[in-house]
Write a structure and sequence with these properties.
13 strands, alpha/beta, about 300 residues, elongated, four-stranded antiparallel sheet
């Protein structure tokens, strides 16, 4: 797989404060990667390093082999589309004027601007002043400007901020279409549950350090995450079912007609076999795997530090 952008052993310090420490992470071509973590985790610092706005205190940053803060930085940055966390546009300009301004900054023609505004759902407001836009409309305008010039690397810092649930889904459908078209996308967010099923990989940051990176399945294996099995039993049968469980199964909840069991991933099938043999006592079974939020909590908890 081709690495489009990479941080290699990167550390960034500000007057004795370490914003990111020894982070190594690559963005693969044609994939969507979520950079997740709560405020202060170091996500925005990594984006600024990739944009060449700041230089690392140690380590290196490359986009297609080019240092974005070096002599050829402008060449590397031409391949980037960027949506900042806080979108701020001049309120006196219309949507069309704003798009034309950014197209000129990027050295791109304006002929595709109308289609981009249509794509993000605000073509009807193209001739209105941005000051009249809602927060969600300004966010959509920010996404449209990031798409000018069809960049192959897109950095979206909190792309669904200010959007209603339907619009959030629209944004992720757009991101999926960009991936299908071959673009590489980094989504920086603290909305872990929202993003987990919409990306190829996730990189979990906490207090400037990269705790883990990989697919959701890889993160679960790396965190030795347990599977959760919810069992609906006949009234009063819970104790009998629980007594038949293999060693290592932990009962998280025990009700009169229900059990919630936590079991190591490789121990799930033995538990299911026991439940199948007790079919006369069991009414229903639901299985689940830990999501990104739970994995984050587990990994942060292992550091012994508060979130």
């Amino acid at each position: 797989m081709t690495i489009v952008a990479q941080w290699s052993a990167v550390t960034k310090r500000y007057r004795g404060v370490t914003a990111v420490e020894d982070v190594s992470l690559g963005l693969e071509a044609g994939q969507v990667t979520a950079l997740v973590g709560h405020n202060g985790a170091g996500k925005t610092t990594l984006i600024k390093l990739l944009l060449g706005l700041i230089r690392p205190s140690a380590g290196s940053v490359r986009i297609s082999g080019i240092d974005p803060a070096g002599g050829r930085g402008a060449e590397a940055r031409r391949a980037i589309g960027f949506l900042p966390e806080s979108v701020a546009f001049h309120g006196a300009m219309t949507g069309n004027e704003l798009m034309a301004f950014h197209a000129r900054l990027k050295g791109e023609p304006c002929r595709d601007n109308a289609a981009l505004l249509e794509r993000v759902g605000i073509a009807h407001a193209a001739n209105r002043r941005v000051a009249t836009y809602s927060k969600g409309m300004r966010q959509r305008l920010g996404i449209a400007q990031a798409l000018i010039g069809a960049p192959r690397l897109l950095l979206f810092d909190e792309p669904t901020s200010g959007l209603d649930p339907a619009s959030r889904s629209d944004v992720y459908r757009m991101i999926d279409a960009l991936r299908v078209g071959g673009a590489t996308v980094l989504v920086c967010t603290h909305a872990l549950a929202e993003v987990q099923d919409r990306v190829d990989r996730a990189a979990i940051m906490h207090r400037g350090r990269l705790l883990a990176a990989g697919t959701l399945a890889e993160l679960r294996r790396g965190a030795a995450a347990e599977a959760r099995i919810r069992v609906r039993v006949r009234p009063g049968a819970g104790a009998r079912v629980l007594a038949a469980m293999p060693q290592g199964v932990r009962c998280a909840e025990h009700g009169d007609a229900s059990l919630t069991l936590d079991v190591a991933a490789d121990g799930k099938m033995p538990v299911l076999r026991v439940l199948a043999q007790a079919a006369d006592l069991v009414d229903d079974i639901e299985t689940g795997a830990p999501g990104l939020q739970e994995l984050y909590d587990r990994l942060v908890g292992a550091t012994g530090e508060p979130t």
